Amino acid sequence: MTATDLTTEATSSGQYADVNGVHLYFETHGSGRPLILLHGGLGSGEMFGPTIPALADHHQVIVPDLQGHGRTADIDRPIDVRLMADDIAALIDHLGLDQPDVVGYSLGGGVAFFTASKYPAKVRRLVMASANTTRDAIPPEMLAQQGQVSSAAVEFMKDTPMYQLYQRVAPRPEDFGRLLDKIGESMAKDFDFAEEVRGLQVPTLIVAADADMAPPSHYVEVFKLLDGGLRDGGWMGEGRPKGGHALAILPRLTHYNLGASPLFAAATLDFLDADQP
User: Fold this and answer.
1) pTM > 0.90: yes or no
2) How confident is the model at residue 5 (pLDDT cuts 50, 70, 90)?
């Protein structure tokens, strides 16, 4: 990953930074300790609309649109959370941020995870929400639905908020089918990030809905990889994970509304603003 030829271009509603060949759109809200907030697949930073004010009350919240999403045009590169993590690391350098917290949901959770995994010196704390670390955690019926994500589905998606958002803000609205193809190709690949989870060096909060894409047991297993849930926590918290990691299963939510929930904002702030053992 290189972060050469970085420029920032002001727009009426945000800014663009040129990182790794991506003309990356981002907005900044609030002031305080910096927090990078990463959206889910087929969305944009706008999907956090109800959440951003709470997060921005005491934080500078930087909200990018990831490669090929929202106001960030696609480039000739796969949709891959590891490559997009390089973009976020380059954005951190470009903005001169001193160890921001990185918070990601769904696809953005994977990007946040690899930003912290690959660049631990650049990240203070990580919040990884509704992001699966193994493909086999996803139920077969969900995998079957994911297998239908391609440009052939454009006509069926024209009444969806994802399509309508893309048509409203994308630099090239005609690229929606291309994005579906790339997302479909990405989801079709097998993955298991257990070793990367075990190797995390920054305090991490695992967040999931109680009716998420994968069952709550999957996120408990991820927490176990971080030394969590293996023993009684003790009266003084002495039995909690040594790395300061935590787990939150949020009630009455699904994969699709977690990112806009006040509970997500509350759990995130509680973790980011708490003293660590």
Assistant:
1) yes
2) very low
